[in-house]
Amino acid sequence: MPRRVNLPGASELFRPTQGVPEVPRPAERAEPVRRPRTAGPDGPEASGPRVSGRVRHEEKITVYVSSDELLALEQARLQLRAEHRLAVDRGRIVRAAVAAALADLAEHGAGSELVRRLDENAAGRAEG
Questions:
Q1: Is the dihedral of CA 62, 60, 37, 99 positive or negative?
Q2: Model pLDDT, residue 66
Q3: Cα–Cα distance between 43 and 9 in angstroms, integer?
Q4: Rounded to whole angstroms, how far apart are CA atoms 114 and 100?
Q5: I need a surface site. Which of 38, 95, 99, 118 has the fewest CB within 10 A?
Q6: Tens of pLDDT along 31-42?
Q7: What is the separation, in whole angstroms, between the first and last Cα of the chain?
Q8: How far apart are CA 88 and CA 97, in angstroms?
């Protein structure tokens, strides 16, 4: 004769709980959240975009990359871990690269690496 297990129903599992302390939301915290600073060419106080580091992000984008670009990104992550003892995920690498590109654009404008690369890509597509 098979044994039947008696499991709690949904009303028991999802019942309101009493006495659970509320966790303050980020805007309600008494202590400000410290964001990591990045050292730029002028030191940690340099202006421009900063890498957000390992914090909870409210916004999300999806970026499509080629398999070669994804492989290069993963190899860079492994190189950072092996040679520099930096255990970071691909998202942090991408955020650091975006911050560097935006800082370069703000500093050099039309002469920035970002403008140069995007201009090359646009010219290559126009020719092909």
A1: positive
A2: 96
A3: 59
A4: 10
A5: 118
A6: 555 544 444 444
A7: 74
A8: 13
In this prediction, residue 86 carries a pLDDT of: 95
21 has pLDDT over 80 = no
Length of the chain, please?
A: 128
- Answer for the pair 35, 50: CB distance below 8 angstroms, yes or no: yes
| Residue 49 dihedral angles phi and psi, to the nearest 5° | -65, 145
* Token pair recorded at residue 9: 């129903």
Count CA atoms within 13 Å of residue 25 on its CB side: 2
Judge whether residue 99 has pLDDT over 60.
yes
Query: Which pLDDT tens digit goes with each residue over 60-96?
Result: 999 999 999 999 999 999 999 999 999 999 999 999 9
**Which residues does 95 contact at the CB level (< 8 Å), separation at least 6?**
51, 52, 53
Report how far apart, in Å, the C-alpha atoms of 79 and of each of 29, 72, 102 are.
37, 10, 24
Alpha helical stretches, state H, 1-128: 10-13, 67-84, 90-108, 113-127
Helix (H, G, I), strand (E, B) or coil at 13: helix
For residue 71, what are its two tokens? Answer: 């492989």
Contacts of 123 (CB under 8 A, 6+ apart): none
